[in-house]
Amino acid sequence: MHRSGTSALTRVLSLMGCALPRQLLVADPTNETGHWEPLQLVLLHERMLAEAGSRWDDWRTFDMAALPTERMRYYRDEIARILHEEYGDAPIIVVKDPRICRFVSFFSEAALSAGYEVRSVVMFRNPLEVCESLERRNGMAREQAALLWLRHVLDAERESRNAPRAIVDYDSLLSDWRGCLADLDSDLGIDWPVAIDKAAAQIDAFLAPEMRHHNHSAEALLLDPLLQGWIANALDVLTELARIADTSDGHAKLDAIHDGFENASPLLSGIQTHLNRVRGELQNVLTQRASEVDAISSRSNVRIAALQLEARRAKARMASLRRALSNVYESNSWKITAPARRLKQASTSCLPALHRVYRSLRLPLFLRRSLHRSLLVLSPRLYRAVIDLARKDTDGSPSGGFEDRRSQDMNMSMEHPPLFSVIIPIHDRTDLLREAIESVLRQSFRDLELILITDGSPPSTMSVVESYGALPNVRIFSFPKSSGNAVRGRNKGILEARGKYVSFLDSDDLATTDRLQITKDVFEKENCDVVYGAWRAILDGSRQVDGLVDGQLIVSPQCGVSELKETCVPCQSTVSVRKRVLDEFGYLKPRMQYREDHELWLRLAHFGARFRPTTSQLASLRLHSGNNELNFKPDDAHWKQLLESEYDRRGPRPRKIVYLVGNLNPSGGLLMVVRHAEIFMSFGHDVTIFNLAESGNLRDWLPACDVPVINFNEHTPDYHLSNIDLCIATYWMTVEVARELDAARKAYLVQSDERLFYTDASDKQRVAGTYWGDFDFIVVSEWIGNFLQREFGRNDWKLVPNGIDTKLFNNAVPRRNRDVFRVLIEGPLSVSWKGVADAYHAVADLPVEIWMVTSDIAPPDDWRVSKWFKSVDQATMAEIYNSCDVLVKLSRMESYCLPAMEAMACGCAVVIGAVDGEIEYLRPGENCILVDRGSRTQAKEAVERLKADRELLDRLVAGGLETAAGYSLHRTRDALADLMEEWLA
Q1: Rounded alpha-carbon distances, angstroms, from residue 195 to 17, 21, 137, 182
Q2: Is residue 468 within 8 Å of 452, Cβ to Cβ?
Q3: Alpha carbon 105 to its chain's center
Q4: What is the pLDDT of residue 747?
């Protein structure tokens, strides 16, 4: 029986000298130590069961007579042939496949015809443990697993009585394998080729305690209502036969259970069929509801994000109004007119009393009218105030006047750009980093912001950085992977800097308390562009520097182009630069992995920037064995030469690019967003992906991704959403959020006609509304641009064609075993139009091995799936394509279908359905078989043709490889380079 310890026993027997087959079923996460099964026999048995209307997890009666005589003869001959082929002339072989439990007599006949003597071992295990294991591995319902256990052990025990056999308890094997082998020797009459003492060390190492993942006592069965009765009784009898004696009395007890089980099987089968149908219907409902919930959740997340942005903008407008109001209050005109306002306030406060006196006078009507006209001419405002008093009860008076609110408004915190932006790039420091940060926060000059940029930092470093996140003058940005030096971090800091001056500090150095005050004074006095100063050396003894001792003060002299060509005069942790100069002449150059600051100073001087030193100490530098520069010093001549060739050319001016995505679930559309972002980053730009779903981890399936990802929520700092050069919406729902963001340019990456995703007319109309928006449009296929032009008059779209990473997806490792015909099905099960269920049912009855990759839910229990993968990373996906013969893809809507292209690149043939949309690279008959939209019948016929016709299969594989070679990411990169030159120059 499956999951009953047969793998463990087979490996022990092999260590005792029994031969294993040449081709083994490979180990996998469900059995990491190995299955030890003959691959060819397993596949043959699967085909035989399927042909007779059964399968490995079918507990109903299996009758070989369901097969025609010639087919039975064929399978008997094939078993004999495979035994000879796999085991050769080995004197003692071990054949393990739990499927044999269903046809022990038939397999024994085939083995005897091949010239083998047959000895049987019936292995059993506590059914509670088996049920839990099958539930965990296959998602199998407990009642099905229990019936499966009962069927296997009863059939195996009943059919193995007429030849030498042993009955083995898995518990006994693990607790006393030596005694177990002694019993096997006695029951089977085998002399082991290898002595126990010689194999003992390997067997002990193999039968480790961690092999057992489920452990229950026999008594636990009595407490489980599902397993009481037949199953508990069968376990008792098997335990008796294994540990006491293989007696006819035990056989009779098992026969009674077997007969009862057989009599009840039609009823049980009907009940299970009904349950399977109900379960399938429920699964369909759950799948549909899950899809609806995802759609509602996506819309809610996007709407929430839009409202949050709107609230942020309202808050910013309020702050702006308060600043303007504060300026009014502090102005001379407000102070000069204060007496007049007080007089007006006094007169206004007297109005109610005067109005009451006026009303008490009994004046003629003509006189009242004369007074009204005179008041209107003299003071219209006073006249309106009197009229208002006349229209309401004047006994009460309003509260909270204009002057009462003045002090409140004056005390509100005012946001304004700081004078200094201090930048600290960070990798892996903790205590020294904290000291560096504190040295900035303790500056005597307070008009500053501190920008911290982490670069692939470990959790200990991130903990230090995040502890400062709540401070209003600290801004934190993070890259997920280390770049190897500080260039990217410093450039990010310069890009985000709001200060007039940018100051640099390394994460292990210390700024003097008055550094910024001294620097400010020099800037204002000298009207210069770059200020630097003296520094004090801190040597801990781990690094020797010629001419320096601990505590020594080094004063940097005045420098210009000639001096800077010879040496790097300014010490970086003392330097401050006018931001305007950096924007004009460029930031640090990524090519300069070393001497990057030296090249920057020389370049600025070359283009006319004015340098001024101060003899005052501005920083303390730690010189130690962990300084990153030591990694580059051995090749200093190279970097000096590169500096001399670079300094007279302007540096990069990165642009801030933001992508908005609806979620981080694995998909071809999101993959291309990431690829675009990575290409922009390779051009030197700053790119961030904002996930509007608030949670998710892109690196679960793209572990190599280096693009910063921020899950957007109410706690996302405003500075991540400011200073945007290019904002790109990637799905129609994200357009609403893009509208709320302040960005110099906004674009919409359209990867399909997204109206096709919906059936409701109102949803289609909402999608269509986004195609009229005031955005630039990027499309991944020409047909998308054509429909935008045809239906929405968009003539300005830019084509950035999709491509695949051919370094990852390729046919470098050819298909390993062409004797196993393997079909791959890929896609989310919860999205009906992806056609995953159609693809499965098209091949479910074929004698093929089925692998499935889904991004959401597991396949139903009754699906015949040999291997199921969920949300695998890209490298694993490439291996899966390479391990399969055919990808069957029956989506009803696609705009590009990256999986089909990836499969082609890996040497996997493609059977694909016609779609709403267009897949531009398909050439039916040359690189794929194209079937009608959603046609299971045609897909089945196509797979049967490919399985039978190796020439056709090889021709499609060759055509697919040729096609994929022309669709690499180089095309995407070239198109984005053109786009960048036009949009971001």
Answers
A1: 9, 21, 36, 12
A2: yes
A3: 51
A4: 96
Burial class (CB in 10 A: 0-12, 13-18, 19+), 224: middle
Contacts of 454 (CB under 8 A, 6+ apart): 426, 427, 461, 462, 465, 476, 477, 478, 479, 489
Q: How far is CA 652 from the centre of its chain?
A: 30
Kindly report which listed range (663-677, 689-703, 877-891) carries the lowest average pLDDT score: 689-703
The pLDDT value given to residue 730? 94
Spell out the residues 6+ positions from residue 382 whose beta carbon is closer than 8 angstroms to its own.
Answer: 347, 351, 375
Residues 637-676: tens digit of each pLDDT: 888 899 999 999 999 999 999 999 988 888 888 999 999 9
How far apart are alpha carbons 910 and 203 in whole angstroms? Answer: 45
pLDDT of 538: 92
What is the spatial distance between Cα 13 and Cα 181, in angstroms, rounded to a whole number?
9
Closest CA relative to residue 296, chosen from 691, 660, 663, 768: 663
Please, which residues have CB within 8 angstroms of residue 120's CB and are 6 or more apart in sequence? Answer: 104, 108, 156, 160, 163, 164, 165, 166
The amino acid occupying position 124 is F
Q: Residue 42: CB partners within 8 Å, gap ≥ 6?
A: 25, 97, 99
> Of 365-379, 405-419, 632-646, which gets the smallest average pLDDT?
405-419
Which whole-number Å values give the CA distances from 63 to 58, 98, 110, 212, 417, in the listed order? 12, 17, 16, 34, 83
**What are the beta bridge partners of residue 192?**
none
Helix (H, G, I), strand (E, B) or coil at 776: strand
What percent of the chain clears pLDDT 90, i.e. is strictly above it? Answer: 40
**Rounded Cα gap, residues 810 and 473, in angstroms:** 49
- Among all chains, which residue has been given the structure tokens 């572990």? 703
Q: Which residue has the higher pLDDT, 367 or 48?
A: 48
Q: Three-class SS of residue 261?
A: helix
d(CA 288, CA 837): 13
887 pLDDT tier (thresholds 50, 70, 90): very high
Q: What pLDDT score does 223 carry? A: 55
pLDDT band at 168 (very low <50, low <70, confident <90, very high): confident
Q: What is the pLDDT of residues 818-829, one digit of tens each?
A: 567 899 999 988
Q: Name the more confident of 694 and 734.
A: 734
Q: CA 342, CA 349: separation in Å to the nearest integer?
A: 10
Question: Whose structure tokens read 């399978």?
Answer: 75
CA 427 to chain CA mean position, Å = 23
What's the pLDDT score for residue 412?
Answer: 31
SS3 string, 717-735, reads CHHHHCCEEEEEECCHHHH
The angle, 0 to 180 degrees and rounded to 10, between the axes of the packed helices 248-330 and 142-159 is: 150
How far CA 814 is from CA of 807, 810, 946, 957, in Å, comes to: 15, 9, 18, 11
Site of tokens 């968009």: 794
* Secondary structure of 49-65 in HEC code, one letter for each residue: HHHCCCCCCCCCCCCHH
Q: Which residue carries 């991704």 as its tokens? A: 705
- Which has the closest alpha carbon to 125: 230, 212, 35, 183? 212
For the chain, what is the radius of gyration of the CA atoms? 39
Could you tell me how many residues make up the chain?
985
- Give the closest residue to 452 by CA, choosing from 470, 443, 444: 470
Are 972 and 803 in contact by the 8 Å Cβ rule? The answer is yes
pTM above 0.70, yes or no: no
Chain centroid to Cα 469, Å, comes to: 25
Q: What is the reported pLDDT for 396?
A: 40
More confident residue, 489 or 543: 489
Q: Is the pLDDT of residue 923 over 90?
A: yes
- Whether 579 and 497 have beta carbons less than 8 Å apart is answered as yes
